[in-house]
Amino acid sequence: MNIPSSLIRKQFIDFFKAKQHTFIKSAPVAPNDDPTLLFTNAGMNQFKPIFLDQQKPTSPRAVNYQKCIRVSGKHNDLEEVGVDDYHHTFFEMLGNWSFGDYYKEDAITWAWELITKVWKMDKRRLWVSIYKEDEESKTIWLEKTDIPENRVLKFGKKDNFWEMGDTGPCGPCTEIHYYVGDDISGQSSKGVNCEDDYREFWNLVFIQYNRDSNGSLNDLPNKHVDTGAGFERVVSIMNLKKSNYETDLFVPLIEEIEKISGKSKDFESGVAHRVISDHIRMLGFSLADGAIPGSDGRGYVLRRILRRASRFGRTLGLKDPFLYKLVEVLSDTMGEFYAELEDNKDYIKKIILKEEESFGLTLDKGLEVFSSIVKDTHEKDEISGQNAFKLYDTYGFPLDLTELLAREKNLTVDRAGFEFCMDEQRARGKKSSKFSSNKSTKDWIEVLKVAHSDFLGYEEESCLSKVAMFRLDGGKAEIVLDQTPFYAESGGQVGDKGVLRSDTFYANVFDTQKTGDKIIHFCIVKKGDIRSQTEVISEIDHIRRNNIKLNHTATHLLHSALKEVLGKHVQQAGSLVDEDKLRFDLTHYEKLSQEEISMIEMIVNREILKNILLSTDTKSFDDAKSEGAQALFGEKYGDLVRVVDIPGFSMELCGGTHVSRTGDIGSFKISKESSLASGIRRIEAVTGLMAVERANEVSSQINDLKNVLSCSSDSLLIEINNLIHSNKSYLKEISRLRRIEDRQKVKIMVDGAEEINGCKVIVGSLEQTENLKSFGQDCIDQSKSPTILLIGNIKDKAPLVVCAVSNDMVKKVNAAEIAKSVSKVLGGGGGGKPGIATAGGRKPEALDEALKVGYNEIISRI
Ligand code: SER
């Protein structure tokens, strides 16, 4: 049997199109517009505002195939991936939707019609599960389809009540399962939702509630249908395969892995081939949608997956970067349906290669360290949090990679200890996450029914508005107006600030955001009560908006100039436009040289001087693309798009606000260029008077330097280099003197140590020690007799204790165990080897107490 996946995809779409469903493009898998989601994890994500009545659907019925990733949060399948045949980090979901239109009966009977009449699945293998309280669905299954009663099973909330995340639209569901096993007559209802051979492949959700942040279920104004069929599972079922990896979606990738590694797909039961072919899909699609490997949030998920795949490559003997080589096959396999893969192929390859190269530098060493950690864990079955952190911090091993390696050795990892070490590191200087929200949780009060807020801000900077909805939280308010000149943050441009006022009411708007089709003004109420005055004059901060406009148009000029100077591979990977500056992240593989920066500045300033008249137009997405308009990475575009044209130089799809002529920008200066992630550079720049200010600042800084160093501009560099050089030698000298001092302290301590049962026991605290651990080791090395040492100090407000035990005492006293007990008192983690170990924590005030506990433990053992 060989039914191409492309045919199955087409049959699904055509079936629902024939039932008046409108085809909707897949939304990006790394969404820019939903802060509650790291990745799109279901077909319904892009319709969430419709379910919540925040946005009107363009059509009441929709059908699509959607790119999904499930590696974090409520829906996370990572551990099963590659171990079994049908869980994936990246998969496609086929779906049909009703937005307040048809409901359970049509959803169920159409699903049954498609699978039994069009796809002709074997009815003897089909099972259905329903929510235990959903009698209505049961009746429909039994009366409107020919499924036998004993094949319709009731389940509880865990299996048959679907929720997108901790909050959001949800409802009871009915799922369709297919038995892939060999024993048709031996099937049993007990296998459903329990055994691997019973594959759940289609979930029909009846969305009728919204779960709010307090955990309560609230009725939605309308009832909706949200269905999701796992495409890979459907394709394998239709081709009578037990494994998704045996379908044409994966076979080309698996064959390429066989070719690159020289190892057949059956090598060590094929786990590595499956994991790698799965992970490259996740990586390729996320990168194509603009996600970037990084050290937190979404970027760190990408890095974790890439590193996991790299390590599985090692098990196939692949020492050099290899994942990037699979991008070509991925794009050949999927590019027909997802042009972004084909369009960004070279970029994706380069980013993956860079990441592989940088992890490759530490992976082998990290694996060696892991083996020695395993040896040192002796009979214990746990890898300490400190060791897991060391693998993370020094060798770049994500915790789940260490856990995977540990599982292979039947070990576990002390997660709490690891988290503690992470917390400590975070406390030492972590930035706050991007994924946060300061929205109020109070209820909305509706004054006037409006489907959406009219945005007048392309032409007007103030207007008369009526309040449609508001919610109050102390002195703060969130207000939705029927029409507004306030621009809501999007496309990198920050939201407008300004005022809402009437005779009796006055509020400062400090931010503007969009939810669905509604524009929300975040305000501080200065005077009056919005309840009594619902007509207001809304007026933006004109000067601020003007500065934003300069920066936004300059961003478009910069984008084109970058392509001109650096090459066509440059893509916008992110941007921020506010009143002070513009920030532009671009895909590029190396630091920009000073010449390149100057050339870019020159080109942008040249286009400013030409004083070109901008034009904006609204047209269909396809027309805009064919005229050469630049669409941005990972952005979700509707059918109609706004095109901002700077004739002869730049044309971009953009909803932002712009100057009328390029000359309005005045001047442009790049203020900073830096690395954001591998393959991504960040440029910051200023415009108008800010650019002049920036130039003045630089020259006054140079003047200050000249004065401090009493030298001329010409010798400035030489003077600074001399200073750096002498500073380095002073630091070296201080360190040398500290070590001498330490050695003297060692001698005094060893000579004066108390002796218990023939063993010298040295316990105490020491300030100003250069390196506490090597100090402990020195003491042990210099003592000729049995010795145990437990010393601590406080550095940068953090307590640290080292325990060192001479070889002849390790049988009685294990330093790692002492360190662990000490760390508990310090409120932290500890560990190491039997001869030497360290402990740390958050409680510097408990150092004396911790040393006392350690001392008592030591003497109880000798
Ligand atoms: N939202 C449901 C799911 O993800 C059906 O599409 O399973």
Task: Provide structural commentary.
The protein has 23 helices and 35 strands. Helix content is 38%, strand content 25%. Helix 16 packs across helix 17 (594-609) and helix 20 (716-751) crosses helix 21 (772-782). It is globular and about 90 Å long. Strand 26 and strand 27 (650-653) form a beta hairpin. Strands 1, 2, 5, 6, 7, 8, 9, 10 and 11 form a 9-stranded mixed β-sheet that branches.
What general outline do the C-alpha atoms trace?
globular
Ranges with pLDDT <50 over ≥5 residues? 429-437
| Rg calc | 32 Å
Biggest sheet statistics: 9 strands, mixed
In DSSP terms (H or I, runs of 4 or more residues), the helix count works out at 23
- Average residue pLDDT: 91
Q: List the bound ligands.
A: serine
Number of beta strands: 35
Which percent range describes the beta-strand content?
25-35%
Helix content: 25-40%
Class inferred from helices and paired strands: alpha+beta
Separation, N- and C-terminal Cα atoms: 73 Å
